[in-house]
Design brief:
CATH architecture of one domain: 3-Layer(aba) Sandwich
Helix content: 25-40%
CATH topology of one domain: Rossmann fold
Radius of gyration: 19 Å
Shape: globular
Strand content: 15-25%
CATH superfamily of one domain: NAD(P)-binding Rossmann-like Domain
Structural class: alpha/beta
Number of strands: 17
Strand order of the largest sheet: 3-2-1-4-5-7-12
CATH class of one domain: Alpha Beta
Largest sheet: 7 strands, parallel
Number of helices: 10
Amino acid sequence: MPVFITGGTGYVGASVVRELRRRTHVVRALARSDSAERKLRELGAEPVRGELRDLDTLRAQAAGADAVVHCAFDYSAETVALERAALEALLSALRPGRAFVYTSGVWVYGSRGDAVVAEDAPLRPLEIVAWRPAHEQLVLAQDPQLRTVAIRPGIVYGDGGGIPGGLVAQAAKGTLRIAGDGANRWPTVRHDALAELYGAVVDGRVARGVYNATRGASVPYLEIARAASRAAGGDGRIAHLALEDARAVRPLRRRAGLRPAGRQRPSGSRAGVGAASSHAARRAVQHDGRLAVFDSRPWRESPNPSQ
């Protein structure tokens, strides 16, 4: 099946490309630089030179695809408008009956304390992703003309990437500092397990709607930080930064050109989702009596490749 993907060189997107190629799909992926083209070729995909601003390129690629997977995220002052325009271009060109998979995230649920949050729970998005439910709805509203899916991953980790990988890198430079007391909990999922879900919904002709992607019980931010410290060679001790100070630091980091990795929330946050239930995702990926999307290994075993 011909599949077009945006963001195919990113942390999540590269894992999705690998999984789609493992499933023998012909993958074409957007590439905005020579290095991106080289990476995509190494992954077995055919690069398409362009970026999210190139709406004619997006339309042309969507028109020739049986499925489109949107993983890209552009960090600029025009982030929201740029993604909206890109989604409209892709959706308008995709032929009836084809699949469109949109990458969202569990932060659209907001902070829920100890609640177990299923896919049909009301949304109370954090401010930083307040725009995302409207983009989800833009995609989902194309059903039944298109087979549309919105995937809401938890915090993605594994092989040194994602926010947890960033924590390991910070810990390698000295004592790791976290915002608040660290009691807030993060739903998590390994990048390769998450990619299996993408592959399953692309292949599953009946898969449609919203899918939470997590690996079970949410993990306290403090526990993740301690594991990151140990993975970096430390003793697991963590320093705490007052929330007010953390909020003051974030604008300074933005002005300095520092940005969070991927489509996830920066780590200086008190927010947490109690447990994002993934019942729909379980149904989507079940085969031979096995649930493929969830990795059974504890998070602390693989925060980076050297551990």
